[in-house]
Amino acid sequence: MIEVKNITKTYKAGDIKFNALNNVSFSVNDGEFVAIMGPSGSGKSTLMHILGALDSPTSGTYFLDNKNVSTLSDDELADIRRDKIGFVFQSFNLLPRTTVLRNVMLPLVYAGIHSAERENRAKNALRSAGMDEEHFHHLSNQISGGQIQRVAIARALVNNPSLILADEPTGNLDSKTGEIVIGTFQKLNEELGRTIILITHEQEIAEHADRILFIKDGILIEDRTTHQKRMAKV
Ligand SMILES: Nc1ncnc2c1ncn2[C@@H]1O[C@H](COP(=O)(O)OP(=O)(O)O)[C@@H](O)[C@H]1O
Ligand SMILES: [Mg+2]
């Protein structure tokens, strides 16, 4: 599904050039659950933006479902983001003073889905993300951190994307709530076959994935299969 070849992302500040990503290569198969780990500033979010077709590399190629993403037009990129990819951003970007249900329905407005169908799909996405029905009509600024996370996950699911990209989705949660949220990703992967790429700096969270990529100073330094995956294969 994903093939990243020799990707470099260079930022310039005046005369100074800085490689946020340096010659990174890896591939991800359909249905894999991959965690990306690395210290703050190591290039994780930069990589996620490239994988999500929100940004392009300075050099190197990125193939998504055998399409060379770097050669696509803005319209084609927008179509890919709308149809194939679900994002859970580091800041959740929920609309305040708007109900949970409406927040999840919003991406479908842009996708041109009519309203009865929007509501139906949004409710299903909320259920898949483990949100209680009683909270569907609460305002998004009146729910807890763990619930906000679930709404953000539901919103990423509502387009039925084959690829889910999540940037530190458990970052601000206590460890118990974090485990529940990661359980939601695991279910989406195991039961619905979604491909998941999740950034985290917590080892315990990363161990729920099949595979962990370690990034340091923009370089991919390790790519290993987790215990979780090895157990599943036995
Ligand atoms: N738009 C940008 N312009 C210049 N430098 C950036 C930009 N975005 C990120 N960086 C720098 O690139 C490096 C990697 O950032 P980032 O990908 O956000 O790291 P991480 O998500 O691992 O914390 C950091 O040093 C950061 O300051
Ligand atoms: Mg980041």
Give a short overview.
This protein has helices at residues 44-51, 74-83, 100-110, 115-128, 145-157, 175-192, 203-206, 227-233; strands at residues 2-13, 16-28, 33-37, 59-64, 67-68, 85-88, 163-167, 195-199, 211-216, 219-225. With 234 residues, the chain is α/β, with parallel strands linked by helices.
List the helices and strands and how they pair.
Blueprint: E1 2-13, E2 16-28, E3 33-37, H1 44-51, E4 59-64, E5 67-68, H2 74-83, E6 85-88, H3 100-110, H4 115-128, H5 145-157, E7 163-167, H6 175-192, E8 195-199, H7 203-206, E9 211-216, E10 219-225, H8 227-233
Parallel strand pairs: 3-8, 3-9, 6-7, 7-8
Antiparallel strand pairs: 1-2, 1-4, 4-5, 9-10
Bound molecules: adenosine-5'-diphosphate and magnesium ion.
Magnesium ion binds at residues 44-45, 90, 167.
